[in-house]
Amino acid sequence: MTRFLLAGGGTAGHVNPMLALADAIKHDDFEHRIWALGTAEGLEARLVPERGYNLLTVPRLPFPRRLNSYAFGFLGKFFAAVKLVEGYLVEHRIEVVVGFGGYASAPAYLAARRRGVPFVVHEANALPGMANRWGARFAAAVAVAFHNTKIKNAVFVGMPLRHEIEVLAGKPATAENRAAARTHFGLSGDVPTLLVTGGSLGARSINDAIEESRNLFSAAGIQVLHIVGDRSPLEPVATKDYVRLAYCSEMNLAIEAADFAVARAGASTVSEFAAVGLPACYVPYPVGNGEQKFNVVDLVSAGGSVVCADADFSAKYVSEILIPTVSNTRQLKAMAVIAKKTGVADGAHRLLEMVKRVATGAGEGVA
Description:
Layout: E1 3-7, H1 12-28, E2 33-38, H2 44-50, E3 54-57, H3 69-91, E4 96-99, H4 105-115, E5 119-123, H5 130-135, E6 141-144, E7 154-156, H6 163-170, H7 175-184, E8 193-197, H8 204-212, H9 214-219, E9 223-227, E10 237-238, E11 242-245, H10 251-257, E12 260-263, H11 267-276, E13 280-282, H12 292-295, H13 297-302, E14 306-307, H14 315-327, H15 329-342, H16 347-359
Parallel strand pairs: 1-2, 1-4, 2-3, 4-5, 5-6, 6-7, 8-9, 8-12, 9-11, 12-13, 13-14
Antiparallel strand pairs: 10-11
């Protein structure tokens, strides 16, 4: 039995791989003890307890990027958070810490270092975050989800995936399975299908271009499963060749139903699609530090998917590029094979093996 603390949260990109590793740990040995560390404001506050794991919290402390009153008080608050985590480590007799980035990871790394507890860093994005860049300097092992991630001492393990995606990646990609997934959403079982998703919050540029192009898809004999996000003003719709949902709780079925996808290039999305062999047109989120465009470099370079800048994704792009691509069955099959070869379906197992080696004092893990 080993006692684990998994630190991360804030966004699905941090929470989902953390929970995937937690599930892998529990499957490895039911006697293992697992605690998650996050904030009370992030997605982990809901998702961790729902999955049956104990959540310990620290204050949400964004790193100050300019000199103001918050910056002057930051260090005191940060070291108070570190002290809090040290208490968790002692109270629960934690033997190894695994961090996934986000607000909880930085104090977890420093607390572990101060208490002599070994820790592992997992970086999900090709462009690493600040907490993980710092933590990697002192970690016992560093795991990355993409080959092109530039971070100290990195070992490629892939992305820990949700169990249902692992199962899908291991299933035969048969016409019967695909037809069953399509009919689950009210679509025809034998018509080429495009999955469109901008993530949990949706993507306005993608949604607008797809909505404007509905008649073009219909004329081309392509049916669309369009997940617009909870915040979209577009209402749910269900016709014979176009289904619009605000949210999909069964993304494994949505992925299985599709021949091709349009999506943002979040690390989890890219990793899940590649693992199951679903080629896609990725439209990286244009705001922030631009990490999404780096997440698809390997996949696009290999020919398993394509990328389109957010500013260029329009009804014109749909008409001239997207529809001809989805209509080319031979091209899609070739892209699907490449995507699956590029993807990793057992990232959770690979990361767990690394963590177990660290916990037992065997040194750095290997992919």
